């Protein structure tokens, strides 16, 4: 899994927990390939390997979502759950293909940590940017998201599971926050322009505006 050849960010200036100054913050190297083939799937790739799909098919949409969220409510299991509408998922897939990478600030004591988001639908990999800069493709992921579209046609819903891989890098509450932020930035017409700019017009990307939008302070 994670064997796609996305272009990746090589050098960043002023990132991590340091104050951010200008829209020319980032330096991108476009001619290199990001393979993340060293990561094994923490969750099964098929919904039927997670739940009894034949039983779930008997439920209506609301019941399916309630069952799924309840299943992922166990705080000791190091996983979180969510659900997308069929329309949201279609938008997510289109935008992830068009703009497969993004960065998100995660509030930490004394500042924030910058996360690197890599989309290879139906999977999303989240790791620390500094970890990625140090270790490249062998950087330990903090969180992986797996999307299950098996009920998209019948129930109009896509189930999402997030697995916390590196619990020292991210706790469950942070994982829920990051999962919902990724959803918002890849599906909302108000938020996606930042993702598009990051991928296609890096010189115009304003990380300070992202911090302001998310009310994150250095």
Automatic annotation (TrEMBL):
Q: Where in the cell is it found?
A: Mitochondrion
Q: Which residue ranges does UniProt annotate as crossing the membrane?
A: none
Provide a GO CC annotation, any one: mitochondrion
User: What InterPro entries does the entry give?
Assistant: ATP11
**A Pfam family annotated for this UniProt entry:** ATP11
Coiled-coil annotated spans: none
Q: Might you name a Gene Ontology BP term for this protein?
A: mitochondrial proton-transporting ATP synthase complex assembly
Listed name of the protein: ATP synthase mitochondrial F1 complex assembly factor 1
């Amino acid at each position: 899994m994670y064997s796609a050849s996305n272009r990746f960010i090589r050098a960043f200036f002023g990132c991590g927990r340091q104050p951010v100054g200008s829209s020319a913050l980032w330096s991108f190297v476009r001619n290199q390939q990001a393979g993340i083939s060293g990561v094994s799937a923490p969750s099964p790739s098929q919904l039927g390997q997670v739940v009894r799909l034949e039983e779930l098919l008997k439920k209506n949409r609301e019941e399916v979502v309630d069952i799924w969220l309840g299943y992922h409510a166990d705080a000791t299991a190091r996983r979180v759950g969510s659900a997308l509408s069929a329309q949201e998922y279609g938008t997510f897939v289109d935008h992830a293909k068009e703009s497969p990478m993004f960065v998100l600030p995660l509030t930490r004591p004394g500042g924030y940590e910058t996360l690197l988001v890599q989309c290879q639908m139906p999977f999303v990999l989240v790791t620390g940017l500094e970890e990625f800069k140090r270790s490249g493709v062998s950087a330990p992921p903090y969180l992986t998201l797996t999307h299950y579209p098996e009920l998209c046609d019948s129930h109009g819903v896509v189930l999402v599971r997030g697995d916390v891989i590196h619990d020292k890098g991210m706790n469950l509450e942070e994982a829920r926050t990051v999962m919902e932020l990724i959803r918002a930035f890849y599906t909302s017409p108000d938020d996606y322009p930042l993702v598009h700019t990051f991928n296609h017009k890096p010189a115009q990307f304003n990380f300070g505006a992202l911090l302001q939008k998310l009310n994150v302070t250095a």
